[in-house]
Write a structure and sequence with these properties.
By secondary structure, the chain is an alpha+beta fold. 42% of the residues lie in helices and 25% in strands.
């Protein structure tokens, strides 16, 4: 359209029609702008077009739409946007010639301006017809914009409602809104849960009286007061009973709800379930009462071990108050230089791993005085099982620890005393038995010489005295060994009939000079073989028979054996009786006491240590049995022993050890070559003379060094090795012989010692010796060892 066409043109009518069509089916301002502005450019032959809007809040103008795209940034576009008077034209229209261009500004509405730029001006008639079209278009833009705003507002409002509903439903507290008639118009999930109903429709539009038939009336007066006065009620504790049988304690606050004019139109309520909290508070009150009154220390820490609370018991024990220790770790101020660091590490690791512990530890009080406590500590868990802290109970065990230390000290003292006693006994045994061995040995050698009647009487008296002294020393040592646990019970098969027959054969020989018979009575059910310790059993019977023979001048002594039924198992009953003097009834309970003899002044001719029956009782106890005594003065005594009867499943054939030894003759030993290692001159003489009588070749070594030299030079059949030697002792000599390329490396070595202690026997065997002969020994004992 040019300047020659300043008459009415049908083009404007076409534009009006196209715009009308565009407006008719558009619901969005933005889409309408994008469609109509290019249409104006094309139909009106404009080279630029812009739609400028001004925001109502700040009044600033900006391009809503522009063609071409650089138009807003061009000098013309910037100048138009900065020329406020152009955008607020009176009458809604203004034309501005600019350089060789014509700018047309249409502002029919205060916040909408349409800019058109063309190379030739419009004719007046065109402007006249164009202005209503622009007005229509601008108004349409505004209407659609308002519609878009309402829609956006509605969407935003709906989003806000959904957000509010979500937030309310996820809140743990019950939140609700009531209208002026106290009917519920808004509720959340927590509120619905407490009512017992499942859908909001079940409670909306209803008052509390209609929802809670039991407790609903309690809120009526309060809510009516709020509606009439506007005064809120805050943090009121109330109990809630719903119609489904559930009960809860609630902390409730209610506020007036005001409209835009400040008028009360309803009530807003917030209720928190404090049922669990009340239960915990009651439990804490009870625990607090117990903790405050107990004498034990109670401490509570956080999960890292820092103190949060201590009771008075802790303060009494440690001297520290709550104010002094809160926020600290107990170990920082309670541990000291003698606190066991291993125990400290156990506690530290348990706290770190969130588990409990039970320890005893040395602590230091406020005055830095040590005291012992027992700590039982356990983690405190929340409802989800997560550790929230620790609670520890501390008990003062200082007195117990002191008692334990005293007991340990007393035990150590007793052990030291026992060791001293054993050392004394071992030394006494050695010092007495060594010369006694020479005495007994020489007496036996004298018997093999030609003696007159008077000499024979002297030798016999000497023999009896030496044997008595030997028995006295053995009894004393037996008591010591039993008390110190130095006697081992070695259970094996024992041929009971043979053992009893051999014992009684010995006593038949001993009573040949007296009018006394020796009897044996056996139960038909008595087994031939039993399981027990034969050495201990034989010593028990020998002690009882020895007593019977000693105190019976005429009549009989006897041994009986039978099987009896015990409480839990069969028992072997062995009884030794005599027709001797008997024991007074008032003295019968004293016969098993140590060093106690009955009527000693009347028995001056009968010697004894007073230990025989005491030893026997101890030995019976080692076999798990018991012993009793029965006696009548002038008619004799009976001692009965009961021990558990154990019979092997199958009896082993009689072994060589069960047979009586064959007679010893010189042919048994005359080809032997024996090394005698002995430092005592009298014992040397005794052993050498005894071996000469047997026709045995022998060499003598007086000390350990000499023994090693002779053992290295000659092969011997047997070595008799004294233990107590000057210089190298018998144990060391044996070890050297066994551990070197010695010709006697495999030779049988028999230990000779004046000690009878168990540990000495074990030590000899560990050193490599094969057998053990205790001094004093009789010739037949040595001969039996050699055989």
């Amino acid at each position: 359209m040019d300047s020659s066409s300043n008459k009415h043109s049908p083009i404007l009518s076409d534009i009006l029609l196209e715009i009308a069509l565009a407006i008719g089916n558009q619901t969005s301002e933005r889409l309408l702008v994008r469609k109509t502005v290019p249409l104006l450019l094309k139909r009106l032959e404009c080279n630029a077009c812009g739609l400028i809007s001004s925001a109502a809040s700040d009044g600033q103008h900006q391009y809503t739409f522009a063609v071409p795209g650089m138009f807003p940034r061009s000098s013309v576009g910037k100048e138009i946007l900065s020329s406020k008077h152009l955008l607020e034209t009176s009458g809604g229209y203004q034309v501005v010639p600019l350089d060789d261009q014509w700018i047309y500004v249409f502002s029919p509405a205060p916040d909408q301006t349409l800019i058109l730029r063309r190379s030739v001006p419009f004719a007046d008639i065109q402007i006249k017809e164009l202005r209503p079209i622009v007005c229509l278009l601008i108004n349409t833009y505004q209407n659609l914009r308002e519609k878009d705003r309402r829609l956006a507002a509605e969407q935003e409002s709906e989003a806000d409602r959904r957000l509010l509903k979500t937030v309310l439903d996820y809140l743990p507290d019950a939140i609700y809104l009531k209208d002026g008639q106290r009917r519920k118009v808004l509720t959340n999930a927590a509120d619905l849960k407490h009512t017992g109903f499942t859908a909001p429709e079940d409670i909306l539009g209803k008052t509390d009286e209609e929802v809670f038939s039991i407790t609903g009336k309690n809120s009526k007066l309060i809510e009516e007061e709020i509606l009439s006065t506007g005064i809120p009620v805050e943090n009121r504790v109330e109990i809630l009973h719903n119609d489904f049988g559930k009960e809860a304690w609630m902390l409730t606050s209610k506020f007036p709800f005001l409209d835009g004019k400040g008028k009360i139109t309803g009530i807003v309520g917030i209720s928190r379930d404090i049922t669990r909290q009340r239960e915990l508070n009651k439990e804490l009150e009870r625990l607090s009462l117990v903790a405050s009154q107990t004498t034990n220390g109670v401490i509570i820490t956080d999960k890292e071990g820092y103190l949060e609370w201590v009771n008075e018991g802790f303060t009494k024990i440690s001297g520290f108050t709550l104010e002094e220790v809160i926020g600290k770790r107990p170990g920082d101020f309670l541990q000291g230089p003698e606190t066991d660091q291993e125990v400290v590490e156990i506690m530290r690791k348990a706290i770190q791993e969130h588990r409990g512990f039970d320890v005893e530890v040395l602590n230091y009080n406020k005055q830095r005085e040590p005291y012992w406590i027992k700590i039982i500590c356990n983690p405190m868990l929340d409802e989800e099982g997560k550790v929230q802290g620790f609670m520890a109970i501390e008990s003062d065990i200082t007195l117990r620890k002191e008692n334990e230390q005293e007991i340990l000290a007393a035990k150590q003292l007793a052990e030291n005393a026992q060791q001293a006693e054993e050392a004394f006994l071992a030394n006494m045994s050695h010092e007495i038995r060594t010369p006694l061995n020479a005495v007994i040995g020489m007496v036996n050698l004298l018997y093999d010489t030609e003696l007159s009647e008077e000499q024979l009487d002297y030798v016999t008296t000497l023999d009896h005295s030496a044997n008595f002294l030997h028995g006295l020393i053995s009894n004393v040592l037996d008591i010591a060994k039993i008390q110190s646990g130095s006697i081992d019970v070695v259970v094996r098969e024992v041929r009971l009939h043979n053992l009893m027959e051999n014992l009684l054969a010995t006593y038949r020989n001993k009573v040949l000079s007296k009018p006394v018979s020796v009897m044996l009575q056996k139960d038909a059910a008595l087994p031939d073989i039993v399981l027990t310790d034969p050495v201990i059993l034989q010593q028990i019977l020998n002690n009882l028979l020895s007593n019977a023979e000693k105190f019976t001048r005429q009549g009989e002594i006897g041994l009986s054996a039978r099987v009896v039924n015990g409480k839990d198992q069969a028992m072997l009953q062995l009884s030794v009786w005599d027709t001797g003097e008997g024991i007074p009834a008032d003295k019968l309970d004293q016969v098993f006491l140590k060093f106690k003899q009955i009527d000693a002044h009347e028995r001056a001719n009968i010697r004894g240590s007073g230990l025989g029956l005491a030893i026997t009782k101890e030995l019976v106890g080692l076999l798990g049995g018991r012993i009793e005594a029965q006696s009548e003065r002038g008619k004799g005594s009976t001692f009965s022993v009961w021990i558990p009867l154990v019979v092997p499943e199958s009896a082993a054939p009689e072994s060589r050890a069960d047979q009586r030894p064959a007679p010893i003759t010189s042919q048994n030993t005359k080809h032997m070559n024996i090394l005698v290692v002995e430092d005592n001159r009298i014992n040397q003489k005794y052993i050498i003379k005894l071996l000469e009588k047997l026709g045995v070749q022998q060499e003598l070594a007086e000390n350990g060094e000499d023994a090693l030299l002779k053992a290295a030079a000659t092969k011997f059949d047997v070595i008799l090795m004294d233990i107590q030697l000057p210089g190298i002792n018998g144990y060391q000599v044996t070890q050297k012989i066994r551990s070197t390329a010695n010709p006697n490396r495999d030779t049988r070595i028999i230990a000779l010692t004046a000690s009878a202690m168990r540990q000495d026997v074990h030590k000899a065997m560990e050193a490599g010796m094969n057998d053990f002969l205790s001094k004093p020994f009789k010739p037949k004992e040595l001969i039996e060892k050699l055989r």
